[in-house]
Amino acid sequence: MMADGRKRAGRSAGAGQGDRRNAGQGSGPGGQGTVLGPTLWTEQDVWLFKEGNHYRLYERLGSHAMEVEGVEGTYFSVWAPAATAVSVIGDFNRWDPQSHPLGVRWDGSGIWEGFLPGVMRGSLYKYHIISRHSVRPKEKGDPFALHWETPPKSASVVWDLRYRWTDGQWMGTRRERNKPDSPISIYEVHLGSWKRAERDGNRSLSYREIAPLLAEYVLDLGFTHVEFLPLTEHPFYGSWGYQVTGYFAPSSRYGTPQDFMFLVNHLHRRGIGVILDWVPSHFPTDGHGLARFDGTHVYEHSDPRKGYHPDWKSAIFNFGRNEVRNFLISSALFWLENYHIDGLRVDAVASMLYLDYSRKEGEWVPNRYGGRENLDAMDFIRRLNQVVYGEYPDVQTIAEESTAWPMVTRPTYSGGLGFGLKWNMGWMHDTLKYFSHDPVFRKYHHDRLTFSMWYAFSENFLLPLSHDEVVHGKGSLLGKMPGDEWQRFANLRLLFGYMYMHPGKKLLFMGGEFGQEGEWDHDGGLSWHLLDREGHRGVQTWTRDLNVLYRSEAALYRKDFSPEGFEWIDTSDHEDSVISFLRRGDSPHDVLVAICNFTPVPREDYRVGIPFSGHWREVLNSDSRTYGGSGVGNWGQVRSTDTACHGRERSLVLTLPPLGVLILKPDGGNR
User: Cis (ω within 30 of 0) for the bond into 411?
Assistant: First the structure.
C-alpha cells in the first residue's frame, strides 16, 4: 500500500494488468457505475489461493481504496463460488442491488470484483448475492471487512489501516520478552467489563479511554502481558467475543481500528505485551455472517455431523478446504502484521481435534482410518503454526487444549502441533478441586497437588486461572475458597503463591488479583470499591509482590519446561497437608525453596532438607500482616542446621504459617 493508503490501478498502474478479465459481464464499465477492469489479483495470487497457500488474502479480498485513471473510489473483491450474480449495496446507492454489480473472474476462482468510483472511507456496504442453490438472495457482510457497524447493526464499513506506530523499541526487543525462558505473567481482560464509565450510563470504556488506565494498572501489578478476550467483531456481546463474524476487524463497540491500534501501541510503549484471543474453531450462523455465504456451505461443512457444533450452536469451519485454510491463516497473520499483536491464544483446540467432541455415538463421522481424530484440523493447525512462526518468530501461539493430546507444543517436524504454549487445564482443575475441600479433609486429596508434576514437562505449559472458572455458577476464585472470611483470603493468597512457584507461565483473569467477591458479570465493571477493604487490598499487594519476585528470580522462569528447574523436597506429608520443593535457575546456587501449608494450623519446628548451609532469607510470606495475614513466620530469615532431612545433609527448622506459603532464598555466601 502506498504512503497515503491508496492503491492505484488503471492504464498507468501496476501489477496484474494482463489479468484484468471478467467473464459473464465483460470488462470495462458495467451496471450503473461499476468499473470491472481494475484488479488486485495476479495469476500467482489465484494459483496460491486455489492450492491453499495464500496467507495474505486481506491484501486482495475485501474493500480497498484505489485510484483508477485519476478517479478515487473503492475496489471490492469477494469469494462466492456458487453465486450467479453479486453486487455491492450500500448507503452510497440506497442499497440498490442493480446499481453496482461485480464481475466474476474468468479463471474459475469464484472471485467477484469491481471498482466503484466515489465510494470512500466510511461508506456502509454489504454484498447482495444471488445463488444458483438458493431461492432468496443473500445480503452478507464482507468476510474481509476492516471495520463494521456497531452491533446490532451489521453492515461492513469501507476503511483503511493507516496509523503512525511509535512502538519500535518494543517490537525490536519483544523476542526476548516472549521467549519460553522469559517471565510471562498474563493479565486476562474482557475489555467491555474491566472498568465502566459509571457516571455515563455505565457504558464500556473505549480503546483510547482504557489505554492509559489499563497500562498503569498492569505496570503497577507487575504483569508482563495483557490477554484480551476476543476483540474481533461479534454480533452478540454476551458471547464475550467467541462468536466471531469479523475475522479482520476489531469490535466497533469500543472504537475504530485506529483506536485499537492506539491501545496496542500504548501498551507496547509502556513495556506490556498484547495477546489476542482468536477463534478459528467455529462461527455463528447470523444471517449477515459466513454461514451459507453464497447459498452453499462455503466456509463450513455441509454435513451437520461435521459442520455444526452442538455445544455452541454454531458452524464449524471446513478445515479441509484450501480457501478456508487461506482465510483463517490470513486472519492470524493479519493481526500480527497490522496490529502488532504479540501472541494468539487459540480457542477451543480440543473441539477442532476430535470429530466426536461433545457428540454421542452416531452423531459423528470417523476419519478415513476409522478414528476420531480430525485429520484436516490437525493439518490446518500444523500449517498455521508453521506459517506464524516462519513469518513472526518473535511471537507465541497458545493452545487452549483441554485433553491429553500429545505433543501440542512440540515442533511440527517431529510430529507435534507446533504451538508455543499450552494451557494446563489439568493443573487448573485439580488445584481448584483441592482448594474447594475443607482443610480438614485435604489430606485425603493430597495427590491432586502432586500429580501435576508427573506431566509438568511433557508440554510448554501455562497455568490458567481464567474467565471460564468464574462464570456459569462456578463463583469467583475467592468464593471457591472454604472457611470463614480470614481463611478464604488466606486460601486465595496461598493459591496464588503455589501457582507462581509451580513450573509454567502464569495467567490470571481480571478481578482475581484483588479477590473479586461475585462471579464475573460482562454487563458491569469489576468491584473496584472492594479495594477499600483490608483483605482485598492484601490480595492485590500479594499479587504485585509475587509478580515482582517472579520477574526478578530466574529460578522461577528460566527452566519452566525442563525437569532441571524443579526438585521435590517432600511430597509425602499428607497428614499435615504440606508440600515443599525447589525451583532452580541456571547456576547451582540460583535456588528458591517453597513450603506450602494447606491447613489453618501453624506448624512449628517443621524441618525441611536444603541443598546449602547458611542463612536463608524469607523473601515472601503470604501470612504477612502486609497482606492481611496473621504475621506468623520466621522473623525474615533462618539459619540452617547440619541435621540431615529429606535425603539432604542440611535442613531448616521453620515455623509454617497457617494456610500460607513461605518462599526462601539462600544468602549469597551459602554453600
Answer: no
Q: Give the 3-state secondary structure of residue 161.
A: coil
At 132-188, the pLDDT tens digits run 887 789 999 999 999 999 999 999 999 999 999 999 999 999 999 999 999 999 999
Q: Which residues are catalytic?
A: 347, 400
Write out the three cell numbers for 171.
Answer: 517490537
Could you give the CA distance from residue 230 to residue 242 in angstroms, rounded to a whole number? 6
Distance CA 639, CA 617 (A): 9
DSSP string, 8-72: EESTT--TTGGG--EESS-SSEETTTEE-S--S--HHHHHHHHHT----GGGTSEEEEEEETTEE
C-alpha cell at position 20: 484484468
Residue 504 near residue 462 (C-beta atoms within 8 A): yes
HEC secondary structure over 348-405 = CHHHHHECCCCCCCCCCCCCCCCCCECHHHHHHHHHHHHHHHHHCCCCEEEECCCCCC
DSSP string, 297-313: -SSB-SSHHHHEETTTT
Q: Produce one character per residue of 243-255: b if its CB has 16 or more CB atoms within 10 Å, e if not.
A: bbbbbbbbbbbbb
Q: Are 484 and 658 in contact (CB under 8 A)?
A: no
Identify any residues that bridge with 615 across adjacent strands, giving them in sequence order: 639
Grid coordinates belonging to 440? 480438614
Q: pLDDT tens for residues 393-441?
A: 999 999 999 999 999 999 999 999 999 999 999 999 999 999 999 999 9
Domains of the chain by start residue, with CATH = 7-140 (2.60.40.10), 183-452+462-532 (3.20.20.80), 563-666 (2.60.40.1180)
Instruction: Compute CA distances 628 → 194, 403, 480, 634, whole Å.
Output: 25, 38, 19, 17
Which candidate, 56, 2, 602, 610, places its Cα nearest to that of 330? 56
Q: Which residues of 172-183 are buried (b: 16+ CB within 10 A; e: fewer)?
A: eebeebbebbbb
pTM strictly above 0.90: yes
Q: Write phi, then psi, for 383 (nearest 5 degrees).
A: -65, -40
